[in-house]
Design brief:
mainly alpha, 190 residues, 0% strand, single chain
């Protein structure tokens, strides 16, 4: 490979540009926020030209939506699909997933337009998590699984935000509260 085929840091140009852009967006959006990250900075971090970036994404809005799509809406599948745990244990295990601030909450705070594709994707993601919690609550025998799913989803989101604000771990406290909610919602066997 000649020097002309390499970028400024010796990486091959062209191939993998989309992945480099997405990787740079994950790092920069997490570290400094969506609104404070400009396309020039993203392109520099990804080692691509603006032209290349716009060949892969029609604009920053599309890039932000794709950044969120990268966080699998079934990210807690590793918790919900575990067969070695009872449904009650799976509900509690959701509080062991460590996230300093949910990227969907962060994006929704920064992007004010409710019709923005990233906000719509964040809304769908949050509904999907609450639905998985409700489904697992149903398996556990909860008397009102939809209500318990919503309560646990709210508790997870609150713990995520509080962890970020206080720069302290709040999930253990949230897990203790979740245990009380779960125990109150699931009738004990006679």
């Amino acid at each position: 490979m000649t020097e002309l085929e390499k970028g400024p840091q010796g990486r091959r140009r062209g191939r993998g540009a989309r992945e480099r852009i997405l990787s740079a967006s994950q790092q920069l959006f997490r570290d400094q926020g969506i609104n404070r990250t400009g396309m020039d900075q993203l392109c520099a971090a990804a080692q691509v030209s603006k032209r290349t970036a716009y060949q892969h994404f029609t604009g920053k809005d599309e890039l932000v939506a794709e950044y969120l799509r990268r966080f699998d809406p079934d990210v807690m599948g590793g918790v919900f699909d575990r067969t070695d745990l009872t449904p009650r244990e799976r509900l509690l295990a959701a509080f062991e997933v460590i996230a300093p601030l949910c990227p969907f909450i962060a994006a929704s705070i920064e992007i004010h337009d409710p019709q923005h594709p990233a906000r719509q994707y964040a809304r769908d993601y949050k509904k999907a998590i609450a639905a998985r919690l409700a489904e697992t609550a149903r398996e556990a025998g909860a008397t009102n699984p939809e209500q318990l799913g919503e309560q646990l989803a709210l508790l997870l989101d609150g713990a995520s935000a509080r962890t970020r604000v206080l720069n302290a771990e709040t999930l253990p406290t949230a897990a203790a509260i979740a245990a009380v909610l779960i125990d109150n919602a699931i009738p004990t066997a006679a």
